[in-house]
Write a structure and sequence with these properties.
By secondary structure, the chain is an alpha/beta fold. It is 34% helix and 22% strand. Bound molecules: zinc ion.
Length: 452
């Protein structure tokens, strides 16, 4: 009996080795010739690099690598290659409009179903990838887990899109960001799924567990959406519960008091920079709390000069105080003025996102620091830096290429010529080539089945 078991094990090992060998033979090798390769961590660029990619991951990077016979060679020798970009705070599955809802998203939520909003999110994801955003933190207002479904669909290989870090519904105390009528609140449960009401320690724990069960990879708390927002103890509880499911916590903050409670609790990220004081910037820097400032530019289609000046001053101060900054937009709106002024063509969701560079430039932040916010800090805030982001061996091959040099001219990022996601070419010579991303079934099922 023992002998038989031994033979069986040996056979199994031989089989497994054979399967592994066959798989590695099947994994296509791609060699990218990069004219310049930026490392945003150091803020430097190396010239004439070769990036070898096996399947979905980077195998080797260097100046004189031998390119294996049969490798697909992609010549980006006239371009600058860099890691994919991160929008660390956006909302792909809600789009409130001037018509019919007068920008009042309470009505969007009433009028647009979760399936419709999920399809909008899928489109937005493709548009963001086209502009070089390979990672997106999608933090709330996504109907009934449309964000988690999009992550799943992209991960399974149904369609192209960025790596989505979904939060599920935002968790808040009574009312969330809404001011519903008594009848809608009490008899029609109007808060859910746009928000989860959680008013006690037990309810906070349950809400976080539910979000993680249904696909959240990060937790979003409404710290002070109402005067009866969360206490330091509430926030600490949320942080420890979220950690059990491997999630960091972002706090939506709109008052200075709320910001202070979030900082005192040691929250990982604060969303929206407007209520923060210079002293609080100092505290955030000392504690390493990320600022997802959502720094809206003043554009023909959005914003006003006064608000923009305040946003720029706040961003500048946060940068001077060395707060870890991410590039974040809070984009969740659309109007008919969102067109290219010269051509009259619609701006894509990617165009609207990269336009937030205007605020960073107005704040006088050097390109190298903007680039770090858009990459390294974004990967850290998304908590994926161990597997995605850096163009180094062992990491997923997510990378983009642009003409020009973003280290001296950050606007070079506005014209992304090449996008690779998970080792597959999504865009080449400035044109989307997404065919290989579409499948009639779940061709990628990590671990054999999809959990969270
Ligand atoms: Zn937001």
């Amino acid at each position: 009996m023992k002998k038989r078991t031994g033979m069986f094990c040996l056979l199994l090992v031989v089989l497994l080795v054979g399967v592994a060998a066959a798989q590695s033979q099947l994994a296509p090798i791609t060699a990218i010739k990069a004219g310049r390769l930026i490392d945003p961590e150091t803020g430097t660029a190396a010239t004439n690099q070769v990036i070898l990619i096996e399947g979905e991951k980077i195998k080797a990077v260097g100046p004189n690598l031998a390119i294996p016979a049969g490798a697909v060679v992609i010549d980006l020798s006239k371009l600058t290659v860099l890691p994919g970009l991160v929008d660390a705070h956006t909302h792909m599955a809600i789009t409130y409009k001037e018509q019919p809802e007068n920008n009042y998203y309470y009505l969007t939520y009433i009028m647009e179903s979760t399936p419709l909003r999920a399809i909008q999110a899928a489109s937005n994801g493709i548009q963001l990838l086209n502009s070089g955003f390979t990672v997106v933190r999608d933090v709330g207002n996504n109907a009934l887990y449309a964000d988690a479904a999009l992550r799943q669909a992209i991960e399974q290989g149904w369609l192209p899109g960025p790596t989505v870090i979904p939060s599920g519904p935002m968790i808040g105390s009574t009312g969330g960001q809404f001011w519903p009528t008594p009848e809608m609140y009490k008899y029609h449960n109007i808060m859910f799924p746009e928000y989860i009401d959680a008013n006690s320690p037990d309810e906070i724990v349950r809400a976080i567990r539910e979000n993680m069960l249904f696909g959240a990879r990060t937790i979003k708390l409404c710290i002070d959406c109402k005067p009866w927002g969360y206490s330091v103890e509430d926030i600490k509880l949320a942080i420890s519960e979220a950690a059990k499911g491997g999630c960091m916590v972002e706090g939506h903050v709109q008052t200075t008091d709320g910001a202070q409670r979030a900082i005192d609790a040691g929250i990982h990220m604060i969303a929206h920079g407007n209520a923060l004081t210079p002293e609080q910037h100092q505290q955030m820097a000392a504690k390493g709390i990320f600022l997802n400032g959502t720094d809206t530019p003043f554009m023909p289609y959005r914003g006003n000069e006064g608000a923009f000046k305040r946003t720029v001053a706040n961003l500048r101060d946060a940068w001077e105080k060395k707060v870890p900054l991410t590039f974040s937009t809070d984009l969740d709106y659309w109007n008919e003025r969102m067109k290219n002024e010269k051509t009259g063509e619609w701006l894509t969701r990617g165009d609207l996102t990269i336009a937030f560079l205007e605020t960073w430039k107005a704040a006088g932040i050097p390109p190298v620091d903007i680039l770090r916010a858009m990459t390294i800090n974004g990967y850290n805030a998304a908590d994926i830096i161990k597997e995605r982001g850096p163009i180094k061996p062992g990491f997923y091959a997510d990378l983009i290429a642009v003409a020009g040099d973003p280290l001296t001219d950050i606007d070079a990022l506005r014209n992304v010529q090449f996008v690779m996601k998970n080792g597959m070419v999504f865009k080449k010579d400035g044109v989307m080539t997404p065919e290989k991303f579409f499948h009639p079934g779940p061709v990628r099922t990590p671990s054999g089945r999809w959990t969270r």
